[in-house]
Design brief:
mainly beta; Immunoglobulin-like; five-stranded antiparallel sheet; 1 helix; globular
Length: about 160
């Protein structure tokens, strides 16, 4: 009986590693609430509001990406945006990024929710005026992978992808 339980736990661990413990490539979407292929998720800051994207990673893992403009009185493209990446069945993570003159000026409020496993060493970084990263080690069973969420900006387009 104990041997069967150990086998079951080992099998579950392997499945978790296969589903969530691998490195994913960037994902792609162009319109709100649409299914897209692989590449970057692109948020149009001129449209604003909340834009959601359903994507599939290279490994076939489903993900849901949401970028939300946090209302302010400033001109279009200036303001604070919440970037949220939901890797279905594994984790949800994101952060806020403040934009001025089509550049990142600060990042804040990192967050994550874990469905399977755990996260260690979370780190929010403003890499440059064009890139921000919330990175962490994601652990499933005995395996760990370095992953997270990256935001970049090009003109009035805010892009998000998984590390």
């Amino acid at each position: 009986m104990l041997k069967n339980i150990k086998k079951g736990i080992a099998t579950l661990g392997v499945l978790c590693i296969l589903m969530c413990g691998t490195i994913y490539l960037p994902v792609n979407a162009a319109d709100t609430t649409t299914d897209q292929g692989k590449g970057d998720v692109s948020y149009d800051m001129e449209v604003g509001g909340t834009q959601e994207f359903d994507v599939i990673t290279e490994d076939g893992q489903e993900a849901h990406v949401t970028i939300t403009e946090i209302p302010s009185m400033s001109r279009v493209a200036n303001g604070t945006y919440r970037v949220k990446y939901d890797l279905t069945g594994c984790w949800i993570a994101g952060f806020n990024v403040k934009v001025s003159n089509n550049s990142f000026v600060s990042v804040s409020s990192p967050f994550h929710t874990i469905r399977i496993g755990y996260i260690s060493s979370p780190k929010l970084t403003l890499n440059s005026s064009k890139m921000a990263t919330y990175s962490f080690n994601y652990h499933t069973g005995v395996a760990a992978s370095y992953t997270g969420v990256r935001a970049t900006i090009s003109g009035t387009t805010l892009n998000a992808d998984i590390l």
